[in-house]
Design goal:
The complex is a heterodimer of chains A (224) and B (406).
Chain A lengths: L8 E17 L2 H10 L2 H8 L14 H8 L4 H8 L9 H16 L14 E17 L2 H10 L2 H15 L5 H8 L4 H8 L8 H21 L4
Antiparallel strand pairs in A: 1-2
Chain B lengths: L10 H14 L3 E6 L6 H15 L3 E6 L4 H14 L8 H17 L6 E5 L14 E6 L8 H11 L4 E4 L11 E4 L16 H10 L8 E5 L8 H12 L5 E6 L8 H12 L5 E5 L5 H10 L2 E4 L8 H8 L4 E4 L4 H4 L6 E4 L2 H13 L1 H18 L2 H16 L5 E3 L4
Helix pairs in contact in B: 1-14, 6-9, 7-12, 10-13
Classes of the chains: A alpha+beta (224), B alpha/beta (406).
Chain lengths: 224, 406
């Protein structure tokens, strides 16, 4: 079973260097105004790429993080955190949903307070570099070792960024298992892991567990 | 040399450095700042230039020269940019430009990329002959004296790009502006592992008792570093916990105010035998390293800060650091996770007591602090980012760059 391989999986990594847009918001109304006009790249950076930052807190994007930590708007933060960027066909639709959540809060009283000086929201984009890590897996066992130790930004690239790159809600790992290794059920199992619900280390653990189960099952198989 | 970082820096950083090095090999990269001694910029340049050279890049580092009047003016500009209400007259700006012109006549400014560090040499852009010019700002520009920032901006907008340490330091400008965290070198004399014998020898030479609980702040003697506030916090702690306080700093050639602040600190410390004020010679890196490793708790109670690399240095030694929530310190300390951010003397005193009374918490925070520095604040990551910005400019400003095998 484990020898049935076609193409090897090449691990890649991406790193980002933030690039300032020069625009900042000191309160929720300013954030809303700027959210209507900032580039898709900026929205992408503060939401999809937020997972790359190895966040340790409960937020799922930088907007939710900021409204909670700098404006004290916990309910809005929860609302923003609950918006799954991967459930939208494009960034424009996702942007619209973020604006809807903010509008809902702005219709209520009291008016949210301003952020302290220095705690404004600073809109950025990113310079992104993608490169191979010179680590290849030719079968499940090699993949299992690699995924345990690979840098977590490689997991971001293959599991998160891939969803935008490939479309169709899939990722590089699931695609490789399904298309190249002939492990469709494993591919489906990985594909079912909700990227939005985990940190990068959490995703690593889930992948390890799923692949380990498959390796264990394969080791038990009796073949002539 | 790059291979020396294997197992210390993240592998991805080293691979990307190699790949960018392959693409920029043979090109020249000139750094210019205003001092070879003292301060984080000079320290990192000392280490960065040989690494760039090993990557095949023709790296050079020059400094601008000036007289006392020039450095008095640049110190005032520096303070004004960090929020002090200081007037910079037209005559002072003229002198600033004139000294830069003299330096431009002396220096070889020809290079494929020129990275100008901080405001002192910013006017050199007027004498550019070619290549990509990038202005690197290491200081806190979040609340500058507006007229001073406006004047400086006149120079900055002539660059191809600017680099700031933190997003909130960015000046609204029409050029590309990148955010690159500064870094420490884990292999430098200041950060390498030291032996037990080195610790004992250094402690004896500096007359530091090895058996006492040590609170430490390492910084220039500068009002923005709040050395007096540190002494006040120490006095509050001392009522409950036996400890000594070490304030250690080195002179910097571009900081004429240092001596006056040092005198004020000595006066405030009075005759307390448990306060050790150490004015160490420049390049006392091993001493700083040993002091950080001997410390029980490290403070960096800055009121204003460029970035505060001494925080990352302390964290790299596996120590919890209590930092003022200023400048780049909140980028390094995740409050309550790998250290504490404080906003007052009382806050600093409380957190010191908390750490002294909870050694296990202190140890866990210290380990997380070291991990955080490894991922985000090592020199290999910073060089990687500089080369990435340069390569992006070479590629016409492209923002997604794929570096496959060549």
């Amino acid at each position: 079973m484990m020898e049935k391989t076609i193409g090897s999986f090449e691990f890649k990594q991406c790193v980002i260097v933030p690039k300032s847009t020069g625009q900042s918001a000191a309160n929720l109304r300013q954030l809303r105004t700027l959210l209507t006009s900032v580039s898709d790249e900026s929205i992408f950076h503060h939401t999809y790429q937020y997972f790359l930052s190895g966040h340790v807190l409960e937020y799922t994007n930088a907007f939710a993080h900021w409204v909670a930590e700098s404006l004290g708007e916990k309910a809005l933060s929860e609302h923003l955190s609950n918006i799954d960027p991967y459930s939208f066909p494009n960034i424009e639709a996702f942007r619209h949903e973020l604006l809807k959540a903010i509008d809902l809060r702005l219709e209520a009283l009291p008016e949210p307070r301003d952020a302290m000086v220095g705690e404004e929201f600073f809109f950025s984009e990113a310079l992104t570099l993608i490169f191979p890590l010179h680590v290849r897996a030719r079968n499940l066992a090699e993949f299992l070792i690699a995924i345990r130790y690979i840098d977590k930004s490689s997991i971001y690239y293959h599991f998160y960024e891939a969803r935008m790159r490939l479309g169709g809600g899939t990722d590089d790992f699931s695609k490789w298992f399904s298309n190249s290794v002939g492990q469709e059920s494993l591919g489906e199992r990985l594909n079912a892991i909700d990227p939005f619900m985990h940190t990068l280390e959490g995703i690593r653990n889930h992948i390890v567990e799923a692949v380990e189960d498959e390796v264990r099952r394969a080791m038990e198989e009796i073949t002539s | 040399m790059i291979t020396d970082y294997a197992g210390i820096s993240p592998k991805g950083d080293l691979l990307l450095l190699q790949k960018l090095g392959e693409r920029l090999s043979g090109k020249s990269f000139l750094h210019i700042n205003s001092t070879r001694l003292g301060g984080g910029v000079a320290e990192i340049l000392q280490r960065m230039v040989p690494i760039l050279a090993e990557l095949g890049i023709e790296a050079r580092w020059d400094i601008i020269e000036g007289d006392q009047r020039f450095f008095d003016i640049t110190k005032k500009i520096h303070n004004a940019l960090q929020g002090d209400q200081v007037q910079i007259s037209a005559e002072m700006w003229d002198y600033h430009a004139e000294i830069n012109k003299k330096n431009a006549e002396r220096l070889n400014l020809e290079a494929d990329a020129v990275l100008i560090h901080d405001p002192q040499p910013a006017p050199l852009i007027e004498f550019r002959t070619g290549g990509k010019w990038i202005w690197r700002c290491h200081i806190d520009l979040s609340n500058p004296a507006k007229d001073v920032a406006h004047f400086l901006k006149g120079y900055c907008e002539k660059y191809d790009a600017a680099i700031f340490s933190v997003a909130k330091f960015v000046m609204p400008m029409t050029i590309n502006q990148f955010i690159i965290l500064p870094s420490i070198d884990p292999l430098s004399e200041k950060n390498r592992e030291v032996t037990k014998e080195e610790i004992e020898e250094t402690a004896e030479r500096l007359h530091i008792p090895a058996d006492r609980t040590i609170l430490l702040q390492v910084s220039r003697f500068d009002l923005f570093k709040d050395p007096v506030g540190v002494i006040q916090a120490y006095r509050m702690v001392k009522k409950y916990n036996d400890c000594i306080l070490i304030l250690a700093g080195s002179p910097a050639t571009d900081d004429p105010e240092g001596e006056a602040v040092l005198a004020a600190v000595r006066e405030f410390a009075a005759d307390d035998p448990d306060i050790y004020i150490l004015m160490l010679p420049a390049n006392s890196d091993r001493e700083i390293n040993v002091l950080q490793r001997m410390a029980t708790v490290i403070l960096q109670k800055s009121l204003k800060e460029g970035f505060g690399l001494t925080v990352a240095e302390g964290m790299w030694k596996g120590k919890p650091v209590i930092g003022g929530a200023a400048g780049g310190i909140p980028m390094q300390i995740v409050d309550g996770l790998n250290g504490f951010l404080v906003h007052s003397v009382e806050g600093a005193a409380f957190r010191v007591r908390q750490l002294l009374n909870n050694p296990e918490m202190s140890r866990e925070m210290g380990q997380r602090a070291k991990d955080h520095v490894r991922t985000n604040f090592l020199i290999t990551r910073q060089i990687r980012d500089y080369l990435a910005v340069w390569y992006s400019l070479e590629q016409g400003g492209r923002t997604v760059l794929e570096l496959w095998q060549r």
